Structure formats: C-alpha cells, structure tokens
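Human: I would love a firmer grasp of how sequence relates to backbone shape in proteins. Take your time, and here it is.
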Amino acid sequence: MNKPMSDLFQLHIDIDARVHGIRENRPDWLCGKGCDGCCRRLADVPRLSAVEWTLLREGLAALPSERLAEIRSAMHAMAVAAAEGVSPLVCPLLDQASGACPVYAQRPVACRTYGFYVQRDLGLYCRDIEARVEDGTLADVVWGNHDAIDRWFAALGEVRPLPEWFARWEGGA
C-alpha cells in the first residue's frame, strides 16, 4: 500500500474512533443512517484529494451502469448549478429516493467528518446539530477540530473538484 493511501486509512481510523465515541455516548446523535441533510445541502462542490478519488473510484466502478449514468447526470447538474452560483447543492452520489450513499464505504473525508467536526469560520458544521446544541438538547457536545483534519488532508496531495475527477475518469485520463 502506498504512503498516501496508508495515511488516508489512518485518518479514517482516527475519524471513525471519534465518531464511535460520540455515538456510543450520545445515542440521540442526529448524524447517522437515514440522515442525509448534509448530502442535500452542500455549500460548495466537494473537493477530493487524489488518494480519496482513487478510493471513491473503486466504489464507483463496482456500481451498475444504470446507477453510474444517474451519477453522471447528477455530476453535470452539480457543475452547472455551481457555475451559476446555485446553493445549496445536492451531492451527485446521493440516491435521492433512499437517502443513501451507494459508495458509503469509500466516501471522502468531508463526508466522514460532517456532523462530528466543526470549522465555524467556513460554516462547516451541521446546522441541525447546532440547533440542538443551542436549545440545550445536546448541550454537552464537544465537536472535533476540523483544522486538525485539514492539516492531515493537506498532506494527501493534489485536490480537485469531484465532477472534475469524475469527468477525467470517464474520459480515460
């Protein structure tokens, strides 16, 4: 296994440990199966490192061609919406009927951390969880520090927008 992939897997292990700790202590935590609010309200086009794209591409390659065609269409729609300044955006990978991610095991770091880490200056946190923090329901929440994730992420290499990675893959680049 190459170093960037090894580093990505270590980051996944660290994130998963934090998520497990939160879920274990907070069974009422909103972020979990059935919650797709963040996938339906993206602030911007997701940006992935090359190593994240490698992992995600493996998940995409295993999907049926019909599902890939739907994703291709959604990627195009996202790129157009982003160019027109439309917000929020919907994740092109989301199965909107089920609210599930067909490549959940290969999902990017941003998806793994959302709802469990916060970076207020950039607005990167779950507004639904924040509302429950403010009303006292989740008053004892200790968010993870997204700046630490960003430092890890910076070492993972080249970063591109998701639709660009997808288009390059489909184009054979």
